[in-house]
Amino acid sequence: MIAELPIARTKIYPPVWRGPLLERPRLLNFLHENIDKTLILLSAPAGYGKTALLIQFYHDTDLPVAWYSLDETDRNLHRFVEHLVASLRERFPAFGRLTLGVLRAGAPPETVATAIINDMLENIPDYFALILDDYHMVAEHLGIQILMRHLLERAPEHLHILLASRGPYGLPMTPLVARQQATGLGARHLAFTPEEVRALFARYYAMELSEEEARALAQETEGWITAILLLVEHLRETGAYRPLRPGEPGALYRYLEEEVLRRQPPELQDFLLETAILPLFNVAACNAVRARDDSARWIEEADRRQLFLIQVETTAEGPWYRYHHLFREFLNFHLRSWDPARYRVLHQRAGRWFAGRGDAEAAVAHFLEAGDLEAAVEAMEGAVRSVYAAGRLETLGRWFRALPPPACGRPPACSSIRPRSWWMPAGRRPPSTSWTKPRRPAGRGTTKSGWRSRSSGPPP
Length: 460
Description:
The chain has 460 residues and is an alpha/beta fold.
């Protein structure tokens, strides 16, 4: 027999919300309209308002609701079930004797799940909701995974689970969705709209943002509510919205470091920091930059953990991804500050990889970021004819403005093309007879980039 564990009672009541709690009818209505499902999954990265929405539902629904907030200490099957029972007993005092008896007899997770189901059928007469907040804290525990899968696949009709997590983590979503027993909200649904941003600032901060300011703020943060709230002081200081500069505001970067980056395994931290130098990336790009061949695994892990990873599109080379741009800026700022040598090496590798693909614009961008002027000039010389012929004079002007005069004084291509590309207005080209061709061997400088801008990925 296993002794009864003490119950942390603060975990079985909804937390008292101390910050702004803007009502979001479109999301609340979704929960009410789908509460007949066995499972509603709220899956999004940290700080997207999952807990706040569940608190609103708790107070807004007519159903009896049991609440369980999870943390690292719950990564134990017995502790998890003991607290689950305590939560349900708050609403249904007769529940739990059967479940605890089976648990304390040392039964395997599947048997404990069966006991929970039978206990619910015997001792819970009403339709009810069970809220599991921060489920990702325990989701990798194998015993808890087995129990939850068994419970969800065989759930009684009157059980409805609302689960907030940073990923599905082994939940049987495919069969449940196929049987129309599961649905969910993701980051794109939880993201604040410009209208919600305006309402939030007007109601809680007495700040009247214009439509343009609200739209710009929602666009820069991509609707991420934590970033929006952490920018309040920034907005108060400036009196109006303006785009952020790298490295500000401190509160947002501290949040990302303490609540996101530090909570990841060291190898995953390294992966995030190393791949964030790429505006867009796929598995091959990550492998090249990291000089490793395991990037597919870490992309999958970052996606599973909801680490602000967004799939852009799928090409013949496979899926392309990007990070939420504020998260990417934070990662770059962090790496550049703490390990500038590593930051430069990664950009040099990226430059060589893109140069080898014939994407001179991406290659030049990475070489310049690495401070490798010689490699940047070489990449420019190799592509200057095709870039010039395509009429991308702004690109040429940007390249040459980024180089100090000595770097661009080397023959042949830089000196021959710089004077005209420097001053020509966008959209205009000088006569072809006035252009001195670079003296390069045949085949050099004739690469054709399939991308439209300085990006490390496919065209938008």
